[in-house]
Design goal:
heterodimer, A: 374 residues, mainly beta, AttH-like fold, 13-stranded antiparallel sheet, 2 helices, B: 852 residues, 4 domains, nine-stranded mixed sheet, six-stranded mixed barrel, 60% helix, 15% strand, elongated
């Protein structure tokens, strides 16, 4: 029962896409300023910090890299919540954390989550000036906190769930300038531009740190991608989910694509960004590329069927790639919210089969009851 | 034989309905008292259980503070334990509904976002409503979910605002949802209200505080081990309890209360046994000839025995069938007073609903059946052993009893002597020793009855149809009259014993109130009655009061529920600040058990503690010892300055001066205050004026006199249930008198016919029987007075000290005792009326050859 309740709390925004009283709507012309805008934006209802990447175990350089994900969500409860309650339990926001580590070589994908009200005891979001961007008490049964913090010009990421055997401590340092998507960082989600998000990415981060596997620390190194979105409403009533892709190509280019699907499974709205090796970003309209699913995989746990291979063509960028999941079973199933989605590492190859890069794909709204609550 | 049993039962019902009914009523009353008491006892525990389960039903462990509240920052520490799957804080407060006298809500503030399925939203929680309600619970100020039952009772609906008070603080609740918690937990209290912990803390002024943290564990985890591990990491100010331990805590608190009731119900059963014995005896006497015939036509002694016991069993079954509903009604009738006692004395949940569990029905059935069988087995054996010739011959029954009266009395003396010896040597060291001793003495009392009755009545030489003949008849029919007199004696003992106990206790309490209640006006809050140490007075109010013209001094009291460091003893620690009251005056107000009050005051000023007598007895403390309490940061050692009489709690009370309390347990607001007024002011008038001045505030002002009256009112309420039981026992005993005389009317049909033939009028025969009934009442009363005084001594000097730890100064509640004596006599006389009427109906025509 509980998960449905939660789903609906989280989904309150989705039910009222046209506007949430009291919350600020994402709009073009946002005056970006860093590091301030790495921090939370409490005027908007929802935002997330999404870090995904590939990590080679230094001791096994030839093995398929591990995949990792760390996401913090800020979910606003009420725009007009009293600012100064006598109780430290009074919360304006919820803090939700998702973390996953995938090990394609061993066929294992571990997902963990936390969901608390954002209160001093359990989690929250640092104000500008505070190195901590977001943190949450680890899930019950595990000591410590999950956190995402500014450190040494990069981001320190920690997550731990002893019961599920997930733990990492990573430092991710951007090697390219931040990319503002869409028009000056406003990324529309509908054709008429009535809904959208403030959206920027750090498309390449150099990652070093430790991942624990079966309790043993492993030194790792690799590359990651940071996505930041800030919004009050995104999915329109007739949108059921989205496909999102980030690719780090071996030729130095980075590509981000997303499409919002309608009930018929077809793209209702799509947009992308191509970043060249020198950091120059170019918006790719939805008709400038095609991203066709191929092989599918069906989850035993949720019964949802997800594509796990694709053909991607961006003629303007001279790209024709085959994308293949490094592991089919990369579905994240939230016990708390009932939400399930596929968030997985993919390899990119040329039609001839040559390695072309690595990326991450996120698939939401597949299967019954999986419409994302945002 | 079975067919014969059926026929003989039908015949008995037809021919001697009254006799049969009285026997059944006796069994039924005994069963009823067991049912009533056990139902109430269980109700008390269930009320606690239901409230725990409704709120913490899903918890495998509960973390509580040794003092009532706990620092919420312990939550992450709890969450970090490897076996914990969820943990959520709860703030529990009894709040008074402002402007509605005596209406309380059991307010639970919990993390509505906790990973626990709680029926915040009715039904399966799915749907738009669920999300909206959860969101509102977090964001609408004062949002609370109430039970539909409670809201309907007050005419409240969703969206209404309700003002409640906790201590002197008012808070506005918004009824956000009506949730039937009973569908989730059948024993959930009706007055349960649930809100988010943030609102509870903010509105009720408890930032940072929680009362407990509920914890769920991984399936299969060893709860005791996790509890020990958590207790170790959480530090000394914390207790980690399994649900079973919490239940034991409550049942420990209630032990003395439940024992008190159980002992009383046992007396009823005991008296009921006599009744059964009398009735069976009577039935057998009447049916001697029938058994003689049966034996003559070939029935074996065994068959006769079987027949009698089977009939007794039928009586038992019918008695149980009547007694169970009767007991249930008695329990319902006493529900309010027992419930009131639970909340006012034990600070536990009141009983809202009673259930009649199968275990109680089984127990009642066992008591009724065994009682009937035990009552029947002696006379039945006696009857079965006789040969047909004796059975068919005229009656010789009573000769035998008069021969055994001496032996019975000797046995009684032996039993009493042995019991006394045992008690003096070993029994008094046992907790239940007093009860066992009392029971043995109560058993020996009826055994001396035949000898006493014979000794008093045998020398009487009747010279006509007067009282002397009535008395003489008692001696002649010693066996049946002894039983009735014995039952009356036991009942009267109980009446007298308990009346003396209550009277003495009340007198002691009055004296104690005179010493301790010296201030003129007492100030507390409506929620104090329920929330106790969790209802506070705010500081500005106290400042206002002390600045008021005519107020000489303000005394503040803070009450804290703590435990001794070893966790064994619950202690109400009272911190008292005597502002502006000279030390000499304080010394005069301490009801010390012994010692120099000035010295005690000096020790208190140096950080000592004055402990109540029950605590001293139960913990084995004496002045000079150290009382070690579990503080929030570790043990708190307080030197014991003295021991004072104390009747506020049987658990244990201790007093310190406020600076000592604050040093040990941190600063908090007081719960109560008292004003000392200028001598010329009338406390009642000042209390009324204060009540008018603070009309909108949740404050209760009582003058010295009002407070005293209320304290005594609570006292009387506590003993209200005893009265019901006393009445039941008296009814049983009176049934015994009726029964005895009815038997005699039948048995002595020949004698009565002869008397009538010799010229006795109906009125004279009526008078003869009435005299016998009254004489039985008088004899029972005399014996009962003796037994009652002994019982009172035992209750006051032994049982009370062991179980409650109070010193009660024996007193002689003359008027009450006289009243009861009159009641017993009148009841016995009334019981004789019907048999006397029956006897009066006999005429000379009933004379047979055998009677001559």
């Amino acid at each position: 029962m509980r998960r449905f309740v939660l789903l609906i709390v989280l989904g309150a925004a989705a039910l009222a896409p046209a506007g949430e009283p009291g919350w600020r709507q994402a709009a073009p012309g946002y005056p970006w300023s860093f590091p301030r805008d790495h921090h939370a934006h409490p005027d908007y209802k929802t935002e997330w910090w999404y870090v995904t990447g590939h990590l080679a175990v230094l001791a096994e350089p030839d093995a398929e890299p591990l995949a990792f994900q760390q996401t913090f969500f800020r979910i606003g409860l009420a725009a007009d919540a009293p600012a100064d309650s006598a109780s430290r339990w009074a919360a304006r926001d919820l803090v939700m954390g998702h973390a996953a580590v995938g090990d394609p070589a061993r066929g294992r994908h571990v997902f963990s989550e936390v969901l608390w009200r954002a209160v001093p005891l359990l989690g929250g979001f640092g104000a500008p000036g505070d190195p901590v961007l977001a943190w949450a008490q680890a899930p019950a049964g595990t000591p410590g906190r999950w956190s995402l913090a500014l450190e040494d010009g990069g981001f320190r990421l920690t997550a731990r769930d002893d019961r599920r055997g997930l733990r990492y401590d990573l430092l991710a340092v951007p090697t390219r300038p931040l990319v503002l998507h869409g028009e000056g960082g406003f990324s529309p989600k509908t054709a008429d531009g009535t809904a959208g998000s403030l959206y920027f990415s750090a498309t390449r981060l150099e990652v070093t740190g430790t991942v624990w596997q079966q309790g043993a620390p492993l030194a790792v190194g690799g590359q990651a991608w940071l996505d930041r979105e800030i919004f009050t409403s995104t999915l329109a009533a007739d949108q059921t989910g989205w496909d999102w892709l980030s690719l780090q190509l071996d030729d130095g280019r980075d590509l981000m694509l997303y499409r919002l699907r309608g009930p018929d499974g077809r793209a209702a709205f799509a947009l992308g960004t191509l970043v060249t090796a020198d950091g120059t970003a170019r918006t790719l309209p939805g008709d400038a590329w095609s991203w066709e699913p191929g092989r599918t995989w069906t989850s035993d746990r949720t019964g949802s069927t997800y594509p796990v291979s694709w053909r991607l063509q961006v003629p303007a960028a001279d790209l024709d790639l085959r994308l293949e999941a490094t592991l089919d079973a990369q579905e994240n199933v939230s016990g708390r919210t009932g939400v399930h989605y596929w968030e997985g590492a993919v390899r990119a190859r040329t039609p001839a089969g040559a390695a072309a890069g690595r990326g991450f794909i996120e698939l939401t709204g597949y299967g019954e009851g999986s419409r994302p609550p945002v | 034989m079975i067919r014969y049993l059926g026929r003989s039962l039908r015949q008995q019902l037809r021919r001697s309905r009254t006799l049969f009914l009285l026997t059944v009523v006796g069994v039924a009353l005994g069963v009823a008292s067991v049912v009533a008491i056990q139902t109430l006892n269980r109700g008390a525990l269930q009320a606690f259980d239901g409230s725990v389960r409704a709120v913490s039903g899903q918890a495998d462990l509960t973390v509580t503070g040794t003092i009532p509240t706990l620092d919420e920052s312990l939550l992450p520490v709890v969450l970090a334990d490897p076996d914990v799957t969820g943990a959520w804080p709860l703030l529990r407060l009894d709040v008074a509904v402002h402007g509605r006298d005596g209406l309380y809500l059991d307010l639970v503030g919990f993390d509505v976002f906790a990973p626990v399925s709680y029926p915040l939203i009715g039904g399966d929680g799915a749907g738009d409503d669920a999300g909206r309600l959860l969101s509102e619970a977090l964001t609408v100020p004062g949002w609370a979910a109430l039970t539909p039952e409670f809201a309907a009772g007050q005419g409240w609906a969703v969206g209404d605002s309700v003002t409640v008070s906790s201590g002197s603080r008012l808070a506005e609740l918004t009824i956000g949802a009506l949730v039937d918690f009973k569908s989730f937990e059948p024993l959930a209290p009706r007055r349960l209200a649930v809100m988010d912990i943030a609102w509870a803390q903010a509105l009720l002024g408890r930032p940072g505080q929680v009362h407990q943290i509920d914890v769920t564990l991984v399936p299969g985890a060893d709860a005791d081990r996790v509890a020990a591990r958590l207790a170790a990491v959480l530090g000394p100010g914390v207790r980690v309890l399994t649900p079973e331990q919490r239940r034991q805590d409550a049942s420990g608190l209630l032990a003395a209360f439940r024992l008190n009731l159980t002992a009383l119900s046992l007396i009823s059963v005991f008296v009921g046994l006599f009744l059964v014995l009398t009735a069976v005896q009577a039935a057998l006497v009447r049916r001697r000839t029938e058994f003689g015939v049966l034996r003559s036509v070939g029935a074996t002694p065994r068959q006769v025995l079987g027949l009698i016991l089977a009939e007794a069993a039928v009586v038992g079954v019918v008695g149980v069938a009547l007694g169970v509903p009767l007991g249930w009604l008695a329990a319902l009738r006493n529900l309010d007073s027992v419930s009131g006692t639970l909340t006012s004395i034990y600070v536990l949940e009141g009983i809202e609903t009673l259930t009649l569990p199968p275990a109680v029905i089984l127990l009642a059935a066992a008591v009724g059946l065994c009682g009937a069988l035990i009552g029947a087995v002696g006379p039945a054996l006696d009857m079965a052993r006789r040969d047909p010739g004796t059975l068919l011959a005229p009656l010789h029954l009573h000769r035998r009893t008069s021969g055994t009266a001496g032996r019975l009395a000797a046995g009684a003396l032996g039993l009493a002597g042995a019991a006394t010896g045992w008690f003096l040597l070993a029994g008094r060291d046992l907790r239940a020793g007093g009860f066992v001793y009392g029971f043995l003495m109560m058993v020996s009392l009826p055994l001396v009855v035949p000898l006493v009755v014979r000794t008093i009545t045998a020398p009487v030489r009747p010279r006509g149809l007067g009282l002397a003949l009535s008395l003489r008849n008692l001696a002649v029919r010693l066996q049946t009259t002894s039983l009735a007199v014995a039952a009356l004696a036991v009942t009267a003992s109980m009446l007298v014993g308990i009346t003396i106990l209550i009277g003495s206790f009340r007198a002691t309490l009055v004296t104690w109130l005179d010493t301790t209640i010296r201030a003129d006006v007492y100030i507390s809050t409506p929620s104090w009655v329920r929330a106790g140490n969790d209802a506070f007075l705010d500081r500005p109010l106290l400042d206002e009061l002390s600045a008021r013209p005519g107020v000489r001094a303000v005394e503040e009291q803070r009450r804290l529920r703590v435990r001794t460091a070893d966790g064994r003893q619950l202690v109400w620690l009272n911190g008292v600040r005597f502002a502006g009251v000279a030390g000499a005056e304080l010394a005069g107000r301490l009801p010390l058990v012994g010692g120099d009050p000035y010295l005690v005051v000096a020790k208190l000023e140096r950080g000592g503690v004055l402990i109540g007598e029950p605590l001293a007895r139960k913990g084995g403390y004496a002045p000079g010892d150290t009382l070690v309490l579990a503080g929030a940061d570790g043990p708190v050692a307080l030197p014991i300055a003295g021991v004072a009489y104390d009747y506020t709690s049987e658990g244990g009370t201790a007093f310190v001066l406020m600076p000592t309390l604050i040093a040990a347990f941190g600063p908090t607001a007081p719960n109560n205050a008292a004003l000392f007024l200028d001598a010329e002011l009338d406390p009642d008038e000042v209390a009324a004026a204060l009540a008018a001045d603070y009309a909108g505030r949740p404050l209760v002002f009582r003058s010295n006199r009002t407070l005293r009256t209320e304290v005594l009112g609570i006292f009387d309420q506590t003993f209200a249930v005893t009265r019901t039981l006393q009445v039941m026992a008296l009814l049983i005993a009176v049934c015994g008198v009726s029964l005895t005389l009815l038997i005699q009317a039948r048995e002595r049909a020949g004698e009565l016919a002869l008397l009538r033939a010799l010229g006795a009028t109906r009125r004279q025969v009526f008078g003869l029987f009435l005299g016998e009934g009254t004489a039985m009442g008088a004899l029972g009363l005399v014996l009962g007075l003796g037994g009652g005084v002994g019982l009172a001594a035992l209750l006051i000097l032994v049982i009370n000290r062991v179980w409650f730890g109070w010193t009660i100064q024996p007193a002689w509640p003359g008027a009450a005792l006289l009243g009861q004596a009159a009641l017993v006599l009148a009841a016995a006389a009334a019981a004789a009326v019907y048999p006397a009427l029956r006897a009066g109906l006999s005429d000379a025509g009933g004379l047979t050859r055998d009677d001559l």
